[in-house]
Amino acid sequence: MNLVRPSFLRIALCLLLIAPLFEAGAFAAPAAKIFKVSDFGAKGDGTTLDSPAIQRAIDAASHSGGTVIVPAGTYLCGSIFVKSGVTLQIEKDATIRGSQKITDYPLMPTRVAGIEMTWPAALVNVYEQKNAAITGGGTIDGDGKIFWDSYRTLRSDYDPKGLRWAADYDAKRPRLVQIFNSDHIKLSGLMLKRSGFWTVHICYSHDIEVDGVTIRNNEDGKGPSTDGIDIDSSKKILVQHADISVNDDALCLKAGRDSDGLRVNRPTEDVVLKDSVVRAGAAGVTFGSETSGGFRNVEAYGITVLKPVPVGILFKSAHTRGGWAEDIRIHDMDLKDVAVAIRVIMNWNPAYSYATIPPEIKDYPSYWKVLGTPVPEDKGIAHFHDVHIWNIAGTAKTAFEVDGHPKAPLERFKLDHLALQTQTAGHIVNAANWNFSDIALTTADGSKVTVTDSHDVTGLN
């Protein structure tokens, strides 16, 4: 067979003909179309309800994909919904401020605090979408004090009646940002503040990145249950460069509560938390208390935890939660004068964790029955195992407060290269096959870690 090869001259001529096309950008991807919210009627004056106008801009951008620009100004909003293919860009000196009218947040199916139920939508939502982003140098402000106050009023009524467990569900407070049943979403660069309830809730989602957000929920008071970033029965999640000040869990992994969480049975897995600072909150890194679906392949590192945060690393569950944790890696953390460096508690906050409906109450919402559904003991005990913690340094009042369950000891924990200065050493109860190495624990009272009801705990003292 005779092959005809083009001559060098012909190749050169072809290159000369197509070169101008490259130089002119003929093969470049088309620029994303810009949609300014002001063109859709948004005022940015802080008094006009701008969420309908912003939603019109988002809906227009969703038809072909594009960037919705929120320029400088204060935009009073109820719930807005970011659609697939859309970037919502909140520019510097722009604030989306939440309405204080709960009717501006439509009721939608979701999961809240571990159970599936109908709940007000968040201020900013990515709900069953893909390939979207919320970004910019601006602010999303929940203006949540009115919701904090209503919750506290409800608690003052519920607590004496033995209904502490119901208060968080009955006080329907809007979250700040919800990413629900969505994938390939990015949240970046924003100031998030004064959330009415949880700040960023990532639920039933995958391939999510949260990068460079600052969370400030302790302005205008301290908002109850204003978690920072909650990753809930989701996978392939990256959180990095976060700066968090909240009044509850800061960086938190969740996976469902009790009978409903066991029914759904979706783990949180393939998660990386890194290079962040926690200035205020319940703990630096938290697993639980919603543990029913389990946790797998989680790595947390490069995290600084500052006073007055009470706990550095926290695992918490309850006797009705169930679930498990495995292949957990936590390392390179700096603890600055926390109360407890490492805490594991399997009977967390009984007044909240165990739902018992008083017999005199006959008329109650359907989700109370879900919360009160009994869980058999063999399904209710969480099993935490194969956890590696290393390169943890800093100061604390107590090094360890570890309380496993006698019927499910905490198994195969490996702790090494810990450098802690504490007032006292603390205790470990119901552990099995724990290995310590390269531990530098200096206690002001000269105490050693007390280990009881455990076996094969080596290398500690």
UniProtKB/TrEMBL annotation:
Q: Which UniProt keywords apply?
A: Glycosidase, Hydrolase, Signal
- Report the domain of life of the source organism: Bacteria
Would the keyword Nucleus turn up in this protein's UniProt record?
A: no
In the record, which residues are listed under signal peptide? 1-28
Gene Ontology biological process: carbohydrate metabolic process
Enumerate the Pfam families for this protein: Glyco_hydro_28 (PF00295)
Record-linked SUPFAM superfamilies: Pectin lyase-like
The keyword Signal belongs to this UniProt entry's keyword annotation: yes
The cross-references to InterPro entries, in alphabetical order and at most eight, read: GH28_Enzymes (IPR051801), Glyco_hydro_28 (IPR000743), PbH1 (IPR006626), Pectin_lyas_fold (IPR012334), Pectin_lyase_fold/virulence (IPR011050)
Q: Which GO terms describe its molecular function?
A: polygalacturonase activity
What family classification does the UniProt entry report for this protein? Answer: Belongs to the glycosyl hydrolase 28 family.
Instruction: State what protein this is by name.
Output: Glycoside hydrolase family 28
